[in-house]
Write a structure and sequence with these properties.
It is a single chain. This protein is mainly β. Helix content is 0%, strand content 56%. It has a four-stranded antiparallel beta sheet with strand order 3-4-5-6, with no helix packed on it. A four-stranded antiparallel beta sheet has the order 7-8-9-10, with no helix packed on it. The protein has a four-stranded antiparallel beta sheet with strand order 11-12-13-14, with no helix packed on it. Strand 3 and strand 4 form a beta hairpin. It is globular.
Length: 192
Amino acid sequence: SNGFAARYDATGKELWKTVVPGATNDEPNAAVVAPDQILVVAGTRTSSGGLSTQLYVRFDGAGKIVATKTHNHRDDSGVYDLQADLGTGGFVATGFASAGNSRLALFRPDANLAVLSMATWDNGHNNFGKGVAVGAQSTCYAVGFYTDSKTQLANGLVMTWNQTGDALGGWDAGGNANDYLCAIARCLPAAS
C-alpha cells in the first residue's frame, strides 16, 4: 500500500493530495508543517521482505514531493510521531529501533531529512515511542510503552533526552494493568 498526504483549507476544501510512490508498504504516522510552510511526513516503510525503515517525505507548498529519505538502524526501525525543533531548524521523531528486541528510539532528522543522531532506550523488553514533544534548549520528551515479556502487560514510559541524545531521565508506570502512553504536548505560556 502507498501512503499519501493531503492539504485542506480552513473550510475543508482539498487543496492537493499526493500519493507517495513506491513498491513497498508505507505507513505515514505523523505530519508537521515546518516553519517554512513545507510539509514533512514521517512513518514506516516496510519492504516485501519485511524489513522496516524510517520514512521521511518532504512536500512543497503545492504538494509536490521534493525529498524522500529512508533511514534504518540495525534490523528494523520506524516512526510514530514527528515534531519540528525550532531550536535547531530540524525535526525530532520517536518510534522504534530493533536489535533483537524493539527499543524506544528518538531520531533527529535535519531540515533536509538526513538523520543526524539517534538515541535508544532498552530495558530488555519490546519498547515503542508513540509521542514526542520538544522543549527548551531542544530537550525532547518521548512517551510510549513497553510490553513486559513475563506478564505480557503494557507499561507506560516517559523518557527525556538532551539535544545531543543523552538520556536525562525516565519514568516507568509499571503496575498490573495495560498502560499505553501515546501522546504528549508542549504547553507554552500565554502571550502577554
